[in-house]
Amino acid sequence: MTTVAGIDVRGTQHCETTALGVLLRHQGLDLSEPMLFGLGSGLSFVYWDSKNMGFPFLGGRVKPFDLTRNLATRLGLDLTVQETTSRRKGWENVVGLVEAGHPVGLQLDSYYLEYFGAKVHFGGHVVALYGYDDRVAYLVDTDQQGGAVSTSLTSLADARAARGPMTARHRSFTLTAPRNPPSPRDRIVPAITACADAFLHPPIANLGHRGIDKAGKLVPTWFRRTDDPRRDLPQAALLMEKAGTGGALFRNLYRDFLAECADLLDDSHLRTGLGLYTEAADRWTEVAALIKEAGESGDAECLARTGTLLHELARVEREAMEALTRVGA
């Protein structure tokens, strides 16, 4: 068995921040999960639907791996990424790093991982690999998936080779901190303002505050979008609250990030944003509960109330981000 010594196998709530935490703690940089999420400008919104999808998807963060790239840039980390179409080469890339004493981040499709309870394809899942033997790989995943876990080498190879939405070609990555990295405190303001600017000026109407407003118009029509509302609506609600989002479609994580920042910076605009995102987080949990109730009861009024809430959330989050663009000014 080959393992990296001294690995802190703490799992947290979201897959990408869990893996980032493992890699950075091994570099001596121990940041909270909300701080990792916020410094990576991770918050967003997308209403995603297409003809080949069984049901619409509500997403609350930036695209997979964008958070990692953002965090590396912000903290001056050396991000080394390897991709290949070859299973053999993809595994050689990982083995060499582990043997050299480095934990490795992997992007893969969680469907194939043997310890995963919910068998749903998600090609943007991220784990940290810290060891292997001739049969299994040793990984760190989220708390809800077990934290320190293992899966067969065959299942890991299948997960890394999967093709489909959000997948990558056997992507593996490492992070290396410079000798004198910038203080996370000094990077808070640019992280907040960059996230706010992207949220307020989305390139298409499905994203940011415009996407939330669009969801407010379309969610009330969801009974016409499904042939099995008892399956699809509770599943959508579950993904919002339990599927590694930290609850409230990542708004709990961003609220907690802003609260950490408010302890470090005395800024009225930051406090305004924190108050509004505290309100938004509560309302997103209410949205998920209404969607679940609609699916279980068949009551269209629940979806109508959801639409009203979403329109209100679009306003609340727009006002929050407008305040946050002025942090540090």
Describe the structure.
- This protein is of the alpha+beta class.
- It has 2 domains: 2-30 and 78-176, Cathepsin B, Chain A (Alpha-Beta Complex); 184-325, no CATH class.
- Helix content is 47%, strand content 14%.
- The protein contains 11 helices and 9 strands.
- It has helices spanning 15-25, 33-39, 66-75, 87-99, 153-161, 188-200, 208-218, 229-241, 251-264, 268-297, 300-324, and strands at 2-3, 43-48, 57-61, 78-82, 104-108, 125-132, 136-140, 148-152, 172-176.
- The strands form 2 sheets. Strands 1, 4, 5, 6, 7, 8 and 9 form a 7-stranded antiparallel β-sheet that branches. A two-stranded antiparallel sheet has the order 2-3.
- A hairpin with a 3-residue loop joins strand 6 and strand 7.
- The longest helix has 30 residues, at 268-297.
- The radius of gyration is 20 Å and the shape is globular.
* Count of β-strands: 9
The figure for the number of domains is 2
Which ranges are low-confidence, i.e. pLDDT below 50, for 5 or more consecutive residues? none
Largest sheet at a glance? 7 strands, antiparallel
Overall shape: globular
Please count the helical segments: 11
The helix-strand sequence is EHHEEHEHEEEEHEHHHHHH
In angstroms, what is the radius of gyration?
Answer: 20 Å
User: What level of helicity do the residues show?
Assistant: 40-55%
What class do helices, strands and sheet pairing give? alpha+beta
- What is the oligomeric state here? single chain
**In percent, how much strand structure appears in the residues?**
5-15%
Distance between the termini: 53 Å
Rounded mean pLDDT score: 95
